[in-house]
């Protein structure tokens, strides 16, 4: 069974601090996606990483895919209150389906 | 703009009522759509895969007679929570992908509250 464990589960920080969220699995994924979800809304795709070792940047967010494609990280520099939300990694289950398995989630609160 | 529309956004109803939630792909055809359930501050849990023109595929532990899925057209899937009870209260989210499946686009979810 493929599982995606995220850490930390909860994170409360002050505006301007840096943080890293981890997404780990014992299984290899062809790609991993990161989403951010705000209360009462659906998840919004931030990035997809495909190649082992790949690093992608989205403004203050840096995403990395592990060399073995079993893990990924999201680093936020100088967090802002607008970064508050539930961060989810997700990966395709593979095979003939397009199913996604979601990570356990990281709830981030950035205090002004 | 939104490419997947979900309706209604919020439902409050009495125990025993059946509730239908719609998921529409707005500018593409989706042979497959997915339904998720989410508890407060928790991750998304896949309930079932909705297949156009055929039966839905349910994940282990999901009661197919409780959560009826119909995917009658390439742009619409519906989830009906039958004889809903308070424990069915949750946030339900659908997703759909263009040809090739990825990335998935998510609806804005439906908050179901059963009194």
Question: What's the structural blueprint in terms of helices and strands?
Answer:
The complex is a heterodimer of chains A (112) and B (115).
Chain A (H helix, E strand, L loop, with lengths): L4 E3 L2 E5 L4 E6 L7 E6 L6 E6 L5 E4 L2 E5 L5 E6 L8 E8 L7 E3 L3 E6 L1
Parallel strand pairs in A: 2-11
Antiparallel strand pairs in A: 1-3, 3-8, 4-5, 4-9, 6-7, 7-8, 9-10, 9-11
Chain B lengths: L3 E4 L2 E4 L5 E7 L6 E7 L5 E8 L5 E2 L8 E7 L2 E6 L8 E8 L6 E3 L3 E5 L1
Parallel strand pairs in B: 2-11
Antiparallel strand pairs in B: 1-3, 3-8, 4-5, 4-9, 5-6, 7-8, 9-10, 9-11
In short:
The complex is a heterodimer of chains A (112) and B (115). With 112 residues, chain A is an all-beta fold. Chain A has strands at 5-7, 10-14, 19-24, 32-37, 44-49, 55-58, 61-65, 71-76, 85-92, 100-102, 106-111.
Task: Explain what you see.
The complex is a heterodimer of chains A (112) and B (115). In chain A, 0% of the residues lie in helices and 52% in strands. Chain A has no helices and 11 strands. Chain A has strands at 5-7, 10-14, 19-24, 32-37, 44-49, 55-58, 61-65, 71-76, 85-92, 100-102, 106-111. In chain A, strands 2, 4, 5, 9, 10 and 11 form a 6-stranded mixed sheet that branches. In chain A, a hairpin with a 2-residue loop joins strand 6 (55-58) and strand 7 (61-65). The model of chain A has no long low-confidence stretch (mean pLDDT 94). Chain B is mainly β and 115 residues long. Helices cover 0% and strands 53% of the residues of chain B. In chain B, the strands form 2 sheets. In chain B, strands 2, 4, 5, 6, 9, 10 and 11 form a 7-stranded mixed sheet that branches. In chain B, strands 1-3-8-7 form a 4-stranded antiparallel sheet, with no helix packed on it. In chain B, strand 7 and strand 8 form a beta hairpin. Chain B is globular, with a radius of gyration of 13 Å. In chain B, 37% of the residues are buried. The mean pLDDT of chain B is 91. At the A-B interface, strand 5, strand 9 and strand 10 of A face strand 4, strand 5, strand 9 and strand 10 of B.
């Amino acid at each position: 069974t493929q599982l995606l464990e995220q850490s930390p589960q909860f994170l409360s920080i002050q505006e301007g601090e840096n943080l890293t969220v981890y997404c780990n699995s014992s299984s290899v994924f062809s790609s991993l996606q990161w989403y951010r979800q705000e209360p009462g809304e659906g998840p919004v795709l931030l990035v997809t990483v495909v190649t082992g070792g790949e690093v992608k940047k989205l403004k203050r967010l840096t995403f990395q895919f592990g060399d073995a494609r079993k893990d990924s990280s999201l680093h936020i520099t100088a967090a802002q209150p607008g970064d508050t939300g539930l961060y989810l990694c997700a990966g395709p289950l593979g095979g003939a389906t397009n199913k996604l398995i979601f990570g356990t989630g990281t709830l981030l609160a950035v205090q002004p | 703009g939104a490419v997947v529309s979900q309706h209604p956004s919020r439902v409050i109803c009495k125990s025993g009522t059946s509730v239908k939630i719609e998921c529409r792909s707005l500018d593409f055809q989706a042979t497959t759509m997915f339904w998720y359930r989410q508890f407060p501050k928790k991750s998304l849990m896949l309930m079932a895969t909705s297949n156009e023109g055929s039966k839905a595929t349910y994940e282990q532990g999901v009661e197919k007679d409780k959560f009826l899925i119909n995917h009658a057209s390439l742009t619409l899937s519906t989830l009906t929570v039958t004889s809903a009870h308070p424990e069915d209260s949750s946030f339900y989210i659908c997703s759909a992908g263009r040809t090739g499946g990825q990335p998935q686009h998510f609806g804005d979810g439906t908050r179901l509250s059963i009194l």
